[in-house]
């Protein structure tokens, strides 16, 4: 680990040595992945049985990786906190999965998918990784179809496609509004097949609470059996984290209630760098919040923007009117007006901010909710814009619209009590996906040897913003095709020295988990875990949400530090360890979110540019668009844990673009 | 609105359980049923009582993790998951009874949480298509007629929540199993293993303690995803043909 090499910057962090990815081979970009696969050492089938891998998480990345490594013959231990691997939050993805198949002959190609993804990420992703993602995308569709994933088909029996935000070709494969579910069930079935075959051992209702490092290598995890409370030690030759994103730091988000950062954060505290934590994607099409009781926000698939038109009344006085009574000339279709070539299909960051600005200007619709600004002033604001299907229904007919989006319309009706076939939906942006995550090299290996990170848990492929239908693509690319090829290069260096549970580094990790659990149960304060989580979420949304300022972020850091100190004095966790104890589970996760939140704010503060999902108010063009500073910030910010009371250390990985020219993004 | 809740409390798998009565006040009709339980749990925690354990995760009707018997109906009065059930479906002053899924194959873990591992074991028995990663043919090389694709999709909508089992007087898992057999059996990719799949899955289903199907149809009417009852006919048809082939 690198020693601190600078004076404290702004009183908050140190700058350490620069880092670089050393695994991507040289040569033209379209030959790199083939070369890397060839260069990666092989493990013969008889030796694979002697090698073991722990995979944490059973979503698209983790489920696919476990299944594929199991098929290859390694001994895999698969962990998830849910009652079944089939419930991983990948299941909730609605819209689709991109692949460069060019089935529509509309000019798509690997290179174009690569280009769109890098541009969509505002030139803050690693070029080599993104090219590989585009390259393997077509194989993913083949694999999933062979597993029986029921993608949408045309009458001729061939696969159908649609288009998604940020692109002008139809490359998105979909299964109505349940693409995530169908892809996950495919990976889950492949995983269950390996469980039956005995190559994969499944540990459900188990939560990883610590990473075990022996002699500088990741060699296992400490997990809590959530039913019995037993703190278990699991050892292996390598560890894969595929534990998803950390959007729940905001409390209200589209993530599942259990989605958490603990696996990644525990690894970060053991030396894995955390890259670009401030990159949060705000999704433009969520159902607006209805009240203070709300536990989560629900996304409406971005695919709705293919046929729905987004507008607000030109006159704020019309906000309470029945939208059907507002004539065309009194409506502002603001996306179509400002971005004529992409219209309602602009990327998520742009659509989200545009909606926020309309509402900030008092043009929002729906119930007015009280808001407190950074200075403590309150005002009533309507947080919603219309997503209107009236024109699509008159053009295509109600049945055709129902065939495409029926389940989404039903869901909207269920949640709001309003029928979107008759009145326009109301939507507002919400926290959806986190592009930051543990830093990995081209092999998906973190800064800890033997610790690999896949899917949303790593930082690599989406840059500062994620295009629609690319999260499913990355999860499956990592799990089915990338990781199984790269991890073998690491495993081939084995067999590693045998580690036993009485190894001092293992027992220390075990003890730290046991002590922490006891600490939560012994504080016996007065405030519930959820109340801290909600307060943290409010701070994060206000100061580190859709728009950030220097002053706001500094204020947030102070507020989080105070809140964290209070948490460790006053939290109340009832019950005991030796049983299913949901308050105890939440306490551990919120404790980690309280540390991560501060790092997110420090990262956002240091990046004095706007890019993708990171919008710094101080850095915008005259038109209010995000203004990047490539001369200063064309790097990945990878943070090293600075110790319990120390400051984090920033390591920069310069982003090198050889195949793509960096340009200012424009969707006009 | 104000409500009286009678909730099943059970310390652990082997402990005796009982219904305990709680009161909640000022519940908004925009709350989901689970958010109403969140409110109760905050209230319990503030009073120093242990919160009620219940399962939920995505809270948008797709992960299948939530599942409660609400006044005798699986997932409550509407045809949806518990997380998508909203309090506007209830009236002020109502008494609501909340229990865990009731089936021998789903033992209670704590309070309202049950173990549905038996569903995973049924899938392990054959609920998949055997194709190793990288061994797949080009996707367009096998066309699938749209009618069959749509039928497969309809069956594939099953979220594995277990409402069908909880609603069935026999605690049968036939709708869950029929959905998987129909999903894979409608597709050309699923044909090679079609007849071994059904036998293996049915054997596992019986071994795990699910009851037999007597065509009552409660499963399908309780299913939040509207899985049609005729997937069970498809299952039975495949099972008959499979036994005929073996004979």
Describe the structure.
- The complex is a heterodimer of chains A (668) and B (247).
- By secondary structure, chain A is α+β, with helices and mostly antiparallel strands.
- Chain A has 17 helices and 22 strands.
- Chain A has helices at 32-39, 45-48, 60-72, 110-120, 127-147, 179-197, 262-269, 334-338, 348-360, 390-396, 398-416, 471-491, 504-523, 529-544, 550-570, 582-606, 630-633, and strands at residues 14-15, 52-56, 75-79, 97-98, 172-173, 200-203, 206-214, 217-225, 231-235, 238-241, 274-275, 280-286, 309-313, 331-332, 368-372, 378-382, 385-388, 425-434, 437-438, 451-453, 635-640, 649-654.
- Chain A has a five-stranded mixed sheet.
- In chain A, helix 3 (60-72) packs parallel to helix 6 (179-197) and helix 10 runs antiparallel to helix 11.
- The two termini of chain A are 46 Å apart.
- The model of chain A has no long low-confidence stretch (mean pLDDT 95).
- Chain B is an alpha+beta fold and 247 residues long.
- In chain B, 35% of the residues lie in helices and 12% in strands.
- Chain B is built from eight helices and seven strands.
- In chain B, strand 6 (108-110) and strand 7 (113-114) form a beta hairpin.
- The N and C termini of chain B lie far apart (62 Å).
- The relative contact order of chain B is 0.14.
- The model of chain B has no long low-confidence stretch (mean pLDDT 97).
- Chains A and B meet through helix 3, helix 5, helix 6, helix 11 and helix 12 of A and helix 1, helix 2 and helix 3 of B.
């Amino acid at each position: 680990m690198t020693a601190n090499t600078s004076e404290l910057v702004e009183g908050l962090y140190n700058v350490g040595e620069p880092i670089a990815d050393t695994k991507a081979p040289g040569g033209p970009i379209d030959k790199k992945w083939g070369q890397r696969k060839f260069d990666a050492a092989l493990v013969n089938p008889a030796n694979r049985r002697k090698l073991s891998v722990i995979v944490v998480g059973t979503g698209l990345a983790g489920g696919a990786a476990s299944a594929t490594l199991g098929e290859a013959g390694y001994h895999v231990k698969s962990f998830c906190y849910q009652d079944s691997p089939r419930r991983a939050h990948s299941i909730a993805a609605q819209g689709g999965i991109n692949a460069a198949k060019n089935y529509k002959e509309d000019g798509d190609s690997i290179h174009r998918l690569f280009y769109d993804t890098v541009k969509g990420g505002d030139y803050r992703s690693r070029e080599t990784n993104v090219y590989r993602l585009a390259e393997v995308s077509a194989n993913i569709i083949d694999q999933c179809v062979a597993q029986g994933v029921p993608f949408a088909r045309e009458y001729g029996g061939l696969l159908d496609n649609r288009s998604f935000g940020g692109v002008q070709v139809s490359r998105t494969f979909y299964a109505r509004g349940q693409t995530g579910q169908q892809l996950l069930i495919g990976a889950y079935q492949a995983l269950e097949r390996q469980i039956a075959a005995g190559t994969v051992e499944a540990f459900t209702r188990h939560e990883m609470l610590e990473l075990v490092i022996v002699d500088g290598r990741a060699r296992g995890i400490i997990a809590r059996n959530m039913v019995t409370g037993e703190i278990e030690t699991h050892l292996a030759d390598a560890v894969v984290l595929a534990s998803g994103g950390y959007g729940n730091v905001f409390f209200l988000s589209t993530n599942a209630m259990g989605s958490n950062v603990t696996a990644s954060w525990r690894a970060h505290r053991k030396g894995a760098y955390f890259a670009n934590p401030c990159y949060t994607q705000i999704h433009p099409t969520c159902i607006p919040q209805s009240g203070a009781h709300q536990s989560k926000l629900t996304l409406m698939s971005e695919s709705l923007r293919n046929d729905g038109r987004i507008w607000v009344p030109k006159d704020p006085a019309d906000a309470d009117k029945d939208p059907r009574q507002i004539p065309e000339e009194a409506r502002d279709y603001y996306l179509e007006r400002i971005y004529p070539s992409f219209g309602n299909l602009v990327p998520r960051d742009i659509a989200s901010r545009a909606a926020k600005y309309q509402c900030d200007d008092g043009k929002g619709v729906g119930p007015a909710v009280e808001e407190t600004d950074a200075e403590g002033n309150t005002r009533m604001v309507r947080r919603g814009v219309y997503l209107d299907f009236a024109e699509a229904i008159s053009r295509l007919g109600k049945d055709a619209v129902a065939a495409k989006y029926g389940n989404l319309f039903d869901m909207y009706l269920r949640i709001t009590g309003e029928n979107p076939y008759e009145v326009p939906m109301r939507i507002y942006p919400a926290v959806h996906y986190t592009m930051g995550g543990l830093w990995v090299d081209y092999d998906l290996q973190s800064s800890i040897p033997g610790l690999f990170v896949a899917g949303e848990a790593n930082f690599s492929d989406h840059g500062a913003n994620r295009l629609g239908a690319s999260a499913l693509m990355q999860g499956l690319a990592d799990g089915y095709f990338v990781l199984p090829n790269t991890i073998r290069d690491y495993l081939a260096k084995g067999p590693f020295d045998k580690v036993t549970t009485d190894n001092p580094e293992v027992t220390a990790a075990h003890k730290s988990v046991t002590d922490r659990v006891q600490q939560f149960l012994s504080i016996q304060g007065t405030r519930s875990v959820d109340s801290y989580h909600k307060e943290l979420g409010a701070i994060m949304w206000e100061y580190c949400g859709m728009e950030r300022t220097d002053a706001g972020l500094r204020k947030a850091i102070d507020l989080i530090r105070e809140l964290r100190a209070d948490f460790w004095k006053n939290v109340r966790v009832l019950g005991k360890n030796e049983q299913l104890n949901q308050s105890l589970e939440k306490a551990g996760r919120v404790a980690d979110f309280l540390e991560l939140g501060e790092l997110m704010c420090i990262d956002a503060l240091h990046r004095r540019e706007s890019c993708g999902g990171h919008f710094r108010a101080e850095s915008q063009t005259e038109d209010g668009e995000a203004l990047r500073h490539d001369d200063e910030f064309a790097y990945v910010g990878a943070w090293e844990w600075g110790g319990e009371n120390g400051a984090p250390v920033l390591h920069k990985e310069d982003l090198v673009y050889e195949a793509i020219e960096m340009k200012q993004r424009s969707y006009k | 609105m104000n409500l009286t809740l009678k909730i099943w409390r059970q310390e652990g798998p082997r402990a005796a359980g009982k219904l305990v009565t709680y009161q909640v006040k000022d519940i908004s009709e925009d709350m989901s049923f689970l958010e109403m339980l969140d409110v109760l749990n905050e209230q319990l925690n503030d009073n120093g009582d242990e919160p009620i354990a219940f399962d939920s995760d995505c809270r948008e009707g797709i992960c299948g993790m939530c599942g409660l018997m609400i006044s005798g109906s699986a997932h409550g009065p509407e045809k949806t998951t518990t997380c998508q059930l909203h309090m506007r479906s209830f009236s002020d002053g109502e008494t609501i009874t909340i229990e865990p899924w009731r089936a021998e194959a789903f033992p209670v873990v704590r309070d309202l949480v049950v173990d549905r591992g038996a569903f995973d074991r049924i899938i392990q028995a054959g609920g998949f298509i055997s194709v190793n990663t990288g061994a797949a043919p080009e996707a367009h090389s096998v066309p699938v007629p749209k009618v069959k694709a749509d039928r497969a999709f309809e069956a594939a909508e099953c979220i594995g929540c277990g409402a069908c089992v909880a609603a069935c007087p026999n605690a049968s898992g036939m709708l869950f199993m029929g959905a998987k057999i129909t999903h894979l059996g409608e597709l050309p990719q699923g044909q090679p293993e079609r007849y071994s799949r059904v036998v293996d899955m049915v054997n596992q289903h019986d071994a795990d303690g699910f009851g037999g199907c007597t065509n009552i149809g409660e499963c399908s009417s309780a299913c939040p995803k509207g899985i049609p009852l005729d997937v069970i006919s498809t299952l039975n048809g495949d099972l008959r043909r499979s036994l005929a082939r073996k004979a």
